[in-house]
Amino acid sequence: MKKITSYLIALILIGSGAINAMDTKLQQQIEKQLKELHSAKGGEAWEQGVTAFESMSKSHPKEWLTRYYESYCLLNCGMESKDPATADSYYERAIKAADAAEGLSANNSEIKTLKSWILSMQIGIDPMNRGFEYGMKSNMLLEEAIALDENNPRPYLLQGLAAMYTPEEYGGSKSKAKSCFEKAIKIFESTKVQSATAPSWGYEKAKESLVEVQ
């Protein structure tokens, strides 16, 4: 009985080691891809990112972060596209990937922030028909993201961008945008990124945007 128990414990330990090794390998894959995206220029680089993260998602179907970055890459593909219909197709795929990520990690501040950003880009494709509905959803997602994690700087960045680009008669304000950018920058500079794979985008954009509204 003692030998059987020892054997079972050994199997559990070996199994745990295999899982940890797989997680470590995935983390390395994500880190490598993020480094490549950091210097990405043009739609082709973002397309390669989509392919890479789609592959990771298939091999690790329970990992939300790969779906998150898949969505992030699709969003950037859309922003790089000069054809509105093509861009809109990318945004639709980005929302689906973000929804898949949220299905794996509910009440996630980063996912809600990303979804808000995608919705704001979809508004630009058809502002007359999407402006009100998508704008309300985008704002609500940012409020939810802040409620979930008030130390996440990215929702404040997006709130600032919304205030900067929205006409004053519809609630836009440079002073409001300035306040949001300042808050985002303060958090960026005072909060340590949790890990090399954690979302970290937005700092440079916040600084550039603050200059624009000074």
User: Which fold name is given in CATH as the topology of the largest domain?
Assistant: Serine Threonine Protein Phosphatase 5, Tetratricopeptide repeat
Q: Total number of β-strand segments?
A: 0
Task: Give me the CATH architecture of the largest domain, please.
Answer: Alpha Horseshoe
Residue share in helices? over 70%
Q: First CA to last CA: what distance?
A: 75 Å
Rg estimate, integer Å: 20 Å
Strand content: under 5%
**Are there runs of 5+ residues with pLDDT below 50, and where?**
1-22
Biggest sheet character: none
- Helix count from the secondary structure assignment: 9
Commentary on this structure:
By secondary structure, the chain is an all-alpha fold. The chain has two domains: 42-147, Serine Threonine Protein Phosphatase 5, Tetratricopeptide repeat (Alpha Horseshoe); 150-214, no CATH class. 80% of the residues lie in helices and 0% in strands. It is built from nine helices and no strands. The chain has helices at 2-38, 43-59, 64-80, 84-104, 109-125, 127-148, 153-165, 174-190, 203-212. Helix 4 (84-104) runs antiparallel to helix 5. It is globular and about 50 Å long. It starts with a helix and ends with a helix. The relative contact order is 0.08. Residues 1-22 have low confidence and may be disordered.
